[in-house]
Amino acid sequence: MLPQDPIMLMSYLNTKLRDNYSSLQAFADDNNLSSEELLSITKKLEAAGFTYNADRNQFI
Questions:
Q1: What is d(CA 18, CA 43) in angstroms, rounded to the nearest whole number?
Q2: Which superkingdom is the protein from (predicted)?
């Protein structure tokens, strides 16, 4: 289960992306997240002021 708090979620995802995945899509695929679930996660983080930077493979 993913953290619900946006700050914790961003930290969790950035750690996973840094340590285990080459992209956000690779993380989603490996964790069986649907397109809708991935969109919901990114929107939640965007509402907290974080956006995914594909070049850096992290939320900033």
A1: 21
A2: Bacteria
At 22, list the tokens: 């080459």
pTM of the model: 0.94
Q: Tens of pLDDT along 9-55? A: 999 999 999 999 999 999 999 999 999 999 999 999 999 999 999 99
Q: Which two tokens stand for residue 58?
A: 């992290």
Domain range annotation of the chain = 21-52
Which backbone phi and psi does 31 adopt, to 5 degrees?
A: -105, 15
Q: Using CA atoms, how far apart are residues 16 and 27, in angstroms rounded to an integer?
A: 8
